[in-house]
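Bug #77: duplicate submission created two jobs. Keeping one. Sequence:
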Amino acid sequence: MPETRTVPAPGGGAPPAVRDGGRWVGHWDPESRSFWEGGGRRTARRNLIWSVVVEHLGFTVWTLWSVVAVELSDRRFSADQLFWLVALPNLVGAVLRVPYTFAPARFGGRNWTVASTLLLLVPAVLLSAAVDDPDTPYWVFLLIAATAGLGGGNFASSMANITHFFPASRQGLALGLNAAGGNIGVSSVQLVLPLITGALGLAAAGLFWVPLILVSALGAFLRMDNLRAARADAGGARRAARDPQTWLVSLLYIGTFGSFIGYATALPLLVSLEFPGTGAASYVFLGALVGSCTRPLGGLLADRFGGARVTAWNFLAMAVAVLGALAALRSHHYPSFLLAFFLLFVTAGLGNGSTYRMIPAIFRARALRDVPGDDPAARRDALARGRRDGSAALGLTSAVGAAGGFLVNRAFGSSVAGTGDSGAALLAFAAFYGVCLALTWFCYLRRSFAVGRVPSLAAADV
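Kept job's structure:
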């Protein structure tokens, strides 16, 4: 029999949860106000803090190659080859997000966080070994860049885990903060890594992160919890995969998160190619920073006004911003080019938070559609089922969205290789944002439309 002990509540109140051996919490009910105020909030916040720390490190390792590719330009690789090195971690990270989504439910959120953090040692050590040898062939760089995708997978497991800790009314902000903490890792690596490699050499690009990985894994081991209530059933994954809502929101998430991670990883190399010698590459870290900081604001605005409304306005602004970047490119005015991309990052960050907030709202509305209003037990069961299904959909959506980062980089690489600049790619992005805007309005803002037998999703505050 495992040891059983209670998690104490502040002020001597009733304990909100029962924890047995191995940091497994057996009872978790964040929708109960007394449970939440009696100590559940404190436990949720502690897990959120460490989730942010390790996810930040995952994004850092995932996007190392956005800086390393620029440093490798003196090895006579073509622009298209360099964009492949930046794009490949995005593709692998997108694929890994599918199994990573279900790993917390299978192994426990705390247990999987520790394991996935330690896996980051693989790309960090291999990167240093490769760049330290001037004769390393290109195909080896491709393989090692692919291992950086391990960091991209962390996002899905982290978000799928944290969503269980918070009540529905606070999920927008909680998920936004969790994601923003990870997203800022892109900005961190683009700011810090050039300083590290300038002082210590390119081999330090990987080794610098090793002690931080070990400390973060230890912190997660000591301070995080596993929730037995978060053990999703296989049916939730199957229902999410069959649901048209999952794939519709995934397409929108390509436009928001796919744009964020694609632009964040492509911009250092893109600016060095389009505006060589201007020093513009020194400021690109600001794009990922502002995009990361606006993500929780997107979740907060979605909690207030509805995710679909915020998402629709963002796609309109993104289309305008990308056309502004195209105009700046044609006039070869790099300050305007950077400003247009900073606007893209702001709106992509807002859209990340708002789109991601739509997912639990959609599955909550679906779960409650046939529940009588006077049956509290049935309502609790339906909310639990909706949370499990929504958690599965969150992971699948994050995987599809991350694939957008691969597509963005490949679009830039193909455009530069085929036409000499990135103009064709920018035009394609503007057209895609127009499609996403139309879908958001048609499927979520028109009161007369319902997808997948959920009546009036707009009225359900999606």
